[in-house]
Each structure stands twice: as structure tokens, then as C-alpha cells.
């Protein structure tokens, strides 16, 4: 975690330094974006594997919910604050402040307790490929984690499809301007915050398994609403509703799934199992984006958005018809 925070700070500082020195280019920006993205993945896997060491299992839902509330607040407020800083102080200064935020995060992380997971003896360390194999084997042999991962991976495929064509759909099919789309995303993304706030209560009332499956369904329902809106005076409100629902589904899923995975996975395997979820899930986003691009050029974009919703509904079937749906708590 400390390494990733320090690397992100150093990488982001390249942008304002390059700007001041006069050699800032799109290639530099792309390289920084790629490398900071890599650091973010390592950081996310690390902190989700670290949380069970400082939070007892019965408090994992509460702990992950608080993390998602913070993330939801950032999703809602971050773009607006960033845009204001860019307009007021220019983009390089905004990136510099972003780098400073990682330095602050690095300092705060120094005060966290040291990891209790024992470090391996370097002489007994196995290859990284064997580590990866252990994570894959544990996940796909587990009667709970396997169907969830299959449903999640399929859902992510259609999330990637939707993301690649959503702006095209709103501009070409619905004739919305860039500012209109900004309003839809800004207000609709309040669902992140609401979902994070209610995720734990939903699990207590409905059961963790049903909430995990239902939250994936919320994303699909959001796609269907957005793809089915009529082009009239209610269009904006229905788009806001669809964006709100799919945004709300994300933190509800994250809080409950991550808490469940942390509770049922042995500590020494948790990092590997978390990485498997990232690869098999998020790795399908670009595949879905390519499919979305192909669909958008062969059929009406509206139908491609609806296809993302139908595909999202079908994606939940592996988890729905498994032991996952019967899980009440993460204990």
C-alpha cells in the first residue's frame, strides 16, 4: 500500500513538471495514466486483503460499508471539485494537488498497524505462477465464490458494453449536450453514496446472498431503463433514475461481496483470491467495450443499450441458482 501511494505521487508529479519544462505530451499522459492504473489495482487488492487483519469478521460489513461511503462521496464530489480546480488553477495544478493527496495518504497509512500475515522465508518462496494457480484453484473449487465470480464476470462484460456506448447513445439518439450528460452522471452517481449507506442494512434484512445477486440485477435494470426511455419531457428524469439505480448497485455489491470473500477465504490466500476476481471480472471490460462498439455500428445504439440490460439480467443466473442465494450472513 505504501509503495503504491508513493509511486502514484511520483508518477503524477511528472505531469506538472513536464508542463513546466515544456515537454508535456499525450504520450507522457498516457504512460502516467497506465502506470497509476497499475498501482491502483495493486493498492485495491492490498487494502481489501488487509482490512480483515484490523477488523473482526463480525464487523467486516460495517467496515466495508464505511469505505464505500467514502468512495461514494468521492464519486459524487470528485469530478465537480476537479473540474472547478482545473477551471480556476489549470489542469497541471490540479494533477499536482492530486499527487499531494497521495503523499497525505502515504503519511496516514504509516500509522496503521503492521500486517499480521507472516512473511514467507525467501528461501521457501514459490513461483508467482504457482501463487496465481492457488488463487484460481481455491476460487473455482469453492461452491460460493465460483458462481459469484461467473455472474460478476458476465455482468462486467455488459458493463463494459454499456460504458463504451452510453455517451454516444445520449448524444446521438437522445440529442443531449455534454452539460446535460454531466448533470445526469453527477446527480445519478448519488446512487453510489446511497448504496453504500444502505448496503449493510439490506444484508441484515434480506441476507447477504440475495443482496449480492440483487445488486447485480440493479445494474441491469438501470441499463434497461436508460435504453428504453422515450424521447419526451420525461427523458431526463428516467435517465437520472437509471443512472441512480446502476450506481447504487455497485457499492451494495462491493460491500457484501468483499465482506463475504474476506470472511470465507484464509488470510494467506486472500490477496491471490482478490486478484483472481479483479482479473476475471474487470478484465472483461475491454472485451465488452469492443462488443459495444461493434453493436453500435451495426444496429441502433438504443438496442445495444437494451442488449446490455438483457445480458446483465441473464448474467445473474449462475449465482441465482446456486448456494449463494441461501446465504444469510457472512459468518
Automatic annotation (TrEMBL):
Main location: membrane
Coiled-coil spans in chain: none
InterPro entries: MFS_dom, MFS_trans_sf, TM_effector
Alphabetized UniProt keyword annotations: Cell membrane, Membrane, Transmembrane, Transmembrane helix, Transport
Bilayer disposition of the protein: Multi-pass membrane protein
SUPFAM superfamilies from the UniProt entry: MFS general substrate transporter
Pfam families in the record: MFS_3
Transmembrane segments: 20-43, 84-112, 149-169, 181-199, 211-230, 236-258, 279-297, 303-321
Localisation per UniProt entry: Cell membrane
Domain Major facilitator superfamily (MFS) profile per the UniProt entry, residue ranges: 144-331
GO cellular component annotations of the record: plasma membrane
GO molecular function: transmembrane transporter activity
Gene3D superfamilies with a match to the protein in the record: MFS general substrate transporter like domains
Keyword Flavoprotein attributed: no
Name of the protein: Major facilitator superfamily (MFS) profile domain-containing protein
Organism: Bacillus sonorensis L12
